Amino acid sequence: MGAVQLEVVRELLQRRYGLALSFGPGRILYKETIDAPQMGIGHFEPLHHYAEAHLLLEPGERGSGVVFGTRCSEDELDRNWQRLILTNAMERDHLGILTGAPLTDVRITLRAGRAHAKHTEGGDFRQATYRAVRQALMRAREQGHCVLLEPWYHFELAVPADKIGRALADLTRMRALWLARCDG
User: Fold this and answer.
1) Quick count: other Cβ atoms within 10 Å of Cβ 165?
2) Beta bridge partners of 109
3) Least C-beta-crowded within 10 Å: which of 31, 43, 52, 175?
4) Euclidean distance between the first and final Cα of the chain, in Å?
5) Residues 19, 12 contacting (CB under 8 angstroms)
């Protein structure tokens, strides 16, 4: 909204509900996803290190965020390495490659991996995991399967106690997600 529209909204809410508002600088927040499954293989092998992770990225349900799982046999890759790969995948927000916006509504599944008895260390799988996600996203972009989701808005709303019910009902009707914070 422009400055005039924001002023109109501010005055309208002040007059109708007695709410004193102020607006900070606006910004558009995007999210990215994929619309078709894509496999990524991350390989990390500098001198005296070795790790490989095969990750399948699949479109998830809207609003599901990023979900992780494994369908890798323990005969192929020990359970401790599988857990490490999933932990590495979960420890950060993965960014899409269209605008660098956070990835959402994607299921990441470990399908295979390789380790070396002598040369594999925990950090090796971190690099292999990040590379596998990136490769899957690059392939998805090449095939036209990356999707930039419509922008969403982030805002803070402070309301008097007697107006909370109506505010929550309005936010629910608009399918908003919120974090409640009570400042006394």
Assistant:
1) 10
2) 56, 69
3) 175
4) 31
5) no
Shortest CA distance to 94 belongs to which of 44, 28, 32?
A: 32
Could you read off the pLDDT tens digit of each residue along the chain, which spans 184 residues?
Answer: 578 888 888 898 889 888 888 887 777 788 999 999 999 999 998 888 999 999 999 999 988 999 999 999 999 999 999 999 999 899 999 999 999 999 999 999 999 998 888 888 878 989 999 999 999 999 999 999 999 997 766 677 778 888 888 888 888 877 776 665 665 5
CB atoms within 10 A of CB 105: 20
Strands 106-115 and 32-34, by their bridges, are unpaired
CB 77 within 8 A of CB 31: no
DSSP H or E run through 124 = helix 122-142
